[in-house]
Specification:
The protein is mainly alpha-helical. Helix content is about 45%, strand content about 10%.
Length: about 120
């Protein structure tokens, strides 16, 4: 894959995440409160204003790759999952803290639910 194509692929994912956050928080303004980082820019992939950070207290790093084993793990969790449960994958690397992996739309649904309470 060419560098330009890889950057376009990453930018599309960043924009998807940015747009989904904006959908959950319509009081935020594009480019003023939330924007996608420029490819190659250091720091977070989704840049948030102070106002946005209060509403969405997460630091987002986006990775769009051809394949990652974590998707196979999630597929396995989904295939073993009873209909009343949510598929969850916990991954851990040596000398690192465990991470929880869940579906992005499910995560954003949790965000939306917490706003209603």
């Amino acid at each position: 894959m060419k560098v330009r194509s890889a950057k376009d692929k990453g930018r599309r994912l960043q924009n998807l995440v940015r747009d989904r956050i904006l959908q959950s928080f319509p009081e935020l303004e594009l480019d003023t409160d939330i924007r996608s980082a420029i490819m190659g820019e250091t720091g977070e992939d989704i840049k948030l204003s102070k106002k946005a950070r209060l509403l969405f207290p997460y630091s987002v790093e986006c990775k769009s790759l051809k394949s990652m084993a974590v998707f196979r793990y999630l597929e396995q969790a989904q295939s073993n999952c009873p209909t009343t449960a949510v598929p969850l994958v916990v991954i851990k690397e040596n000398r690192k803290k465990p991470l929880a992996v869940i579906d992005f739309e499910y995560f954003m649904g949790m965000i939306d639910d917490t706003k209603d309470t």
